[in-house]
């Protein structure tokens, strides 16, 4: 199906830009921007598709000298003698006019009282993407993750180290001072509150990192103690609710910087960021919320009354059961969650009543994003 109609056109303006009309949209395209889209022989390396030319190889004052539409392609000739044929569909994606067909779905905020509970069986996604059933299951699994921020992976082996196997299958395990894989159980000298039996309120992990871990995986090896139930909360839904109901407090949490501190004497990590991080368009990007580790910066003009009120508002919203997904992990269950969006918590447990042992690790967002895109390609290639 063509993206263009009879009104589509392309021409070179007097300043050497290309003026294009693709369907009902018009744009002016910079000549060097177009030149750097070229995939003609000699312009990119065939295997890795990276440019073979540098900015110094492109003449200063480069202009387009000819432009025409041919089918669903734009052909452009340049003042340096280069000529290239460019896909209009790719140009429209890069202009943001049409969606990237390989991009994961857009996040969806959870509805109050209707928390999602997406699950997948590990054997369904454990194989290679060259297996059609695995590729299709992987697309479904990572689509749910992109929309909701978490998925429960069921039917995993209950042996130590499985969490790293799962993490390295979907991405690459990222280590830190807690190790590549860490054990979550009651410890006599805990280096983190997670290694106690107390209840934990909704929080994101390690906000004190310069690069906060992207995804957390928590794998249940044993859960026989009384208590210790799991709770998840959607930070996207929480901050959207705050923006609607208390935009003043939302702005405060998005602007006042906070020192997040982890310091046990023998180890220390500190970073300074706002609690709510927005992208350049003002949309939700990331949440750093951990009330055991946060110290707002009392800079001149900082309204700490509003900051503390905003933190309290978020804490109360997240503590409301209608905003939570509460469940009990069974042996072999694994929580796969976005640590930049979904907050996790647990109820207190009695370590004398039974054994409770989880193992965890972190991976970054690039892993599931890449695997999703590759799975989409395999599914498309199978049809």
Description:
The structure is a single chain. With 383 residues, the chain is of the alpha+beta class. It folds into 2 domains: 9-94, NE0471 N-terminal domain-like; 119-374, Double-stranded beta-helix, CATH 3.60.130. The chain is 25% helix and 29% strand. The protein contains 9 helices and 24 strands. It has helices spanning 31-35, 88-94, 122-125, 132-148, 162-170, 235-245, 247-255, 304-319, 366-381; strands at 9-12, 18-22, 25-29, 64-70, 73-78, 83-87, 119-121, 150-154, 173-174, 182-184, 200-203, 215-223, 226-227, 230-234, 258-263, 268-273, 276-278, 284-287, 294-296, 324-327, 334-338, 342-346, 349-350, 356-363. The strands form 7 sheets. Strands 7, 8, 9, 10, 12, 21 and 24 form a 7-stranded mixed beta sheet that branches. Strands 11-22-14-20 form a 4-stranded antiparallel beta sheet. Strand 2 and strand 3 form a beta hairpin. Helix 7 (247-255) packs across helix 8. The protein is globular, with a radius of gyration of 25 Å. The mean pLDDT is 95.
Structural category is alpha+beta
Number of strands: 24
CATH class of the largest domain: Alpha Beta
Put simply, the count of helices is: 9
Count of individual domains = 2
Short description:
With about 375 residues, the chain is α+β, with helices and mostly antiparallel strands. It is built from nine helices and 24 strands.
What keyword list fits this structure?
Double-stranded beta-helix, alpha+beta, 2 domains, 24 strands, NE0471 N-terminal domain-like, four-stranded antiparallel beta sheet, seven-stranded mixed beta sheet, 383 residues, 29% strand
């Amino acid at each position: 199906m063509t993206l263009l109609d009879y009104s589509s056109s392309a021409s070179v303006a007097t300043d050497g830009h290309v003026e294009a009309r693709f369907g009902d949209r018009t744009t002016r395209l910079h000549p060097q921007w177009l030149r750097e889209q070229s995939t003609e022989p000699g312009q990119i390396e065939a295997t890795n598709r990276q440019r073979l030319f540098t900015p110094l190889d492109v003449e200063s004052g480069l202009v387009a000298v000819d432009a025409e539409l041919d089918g669903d392609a734009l052909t452009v000739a340049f003042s340096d003698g280069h000529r290239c044929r460019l896909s209009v569909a790719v140009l429209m994606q890069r202009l943001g006019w049409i969606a990237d067909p390989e991009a994961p779905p857009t996040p969806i905020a959870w509805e109050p009282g209707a928390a999602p509970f997406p699950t997948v069986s590990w054997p369904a996604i454990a194989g290679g993407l060259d297996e059609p059933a695995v590729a299709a299951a992987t697309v479904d699994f990572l689509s749910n993750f992109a929309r909701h921020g978490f998925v429960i992976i069921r039917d995993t082996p209950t042996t130590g180290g499985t969490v790293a196997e799962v993490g390295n299958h979907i991405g690459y395990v990222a280590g830190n001072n807690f190790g590549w894989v860490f054990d979550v159980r009651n410890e006599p000298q805990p280096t983190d509150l997670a290694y106690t039996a107390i209840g934990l309120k909704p929080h994101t992990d390690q906000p004190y990192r310069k690069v906060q871990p992207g995804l957390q995986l928590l794998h249940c090896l044993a859960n026989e103690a009384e208590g210790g139930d799991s709770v998840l909360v959607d930070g996207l839904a929480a901050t959207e609710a705050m923006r609607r109901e208390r935009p003043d407090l939302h702005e405060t949490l998005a602007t006042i910087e906070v020192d997040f501190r982890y310091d046990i004497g023998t180890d220390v990590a500190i970073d300074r960021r706002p609690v709510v991080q927005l992208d350049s368009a003002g949309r939700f990007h990331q949440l750093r919320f951990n009330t055991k580790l946060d110290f707002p910066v009392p800079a001149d003009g900082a309204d700490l009354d509003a900051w503390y009120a905003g933190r309290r508002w978020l804490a109360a919203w997240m503590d409301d059961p209608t905003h939570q997904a509460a469940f009990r992990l069974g042996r072999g269950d694994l929580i796969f969650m976005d640590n930049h969006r979904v907050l996790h918590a647990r109820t207190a447990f009695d370590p004398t009543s039974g054994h409770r042992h989880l193992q965890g690790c972190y991976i970054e967002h690039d892993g599931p994003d890449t695997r999703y895109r590759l799975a989409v390609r395999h599914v498309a290639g199978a049809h």
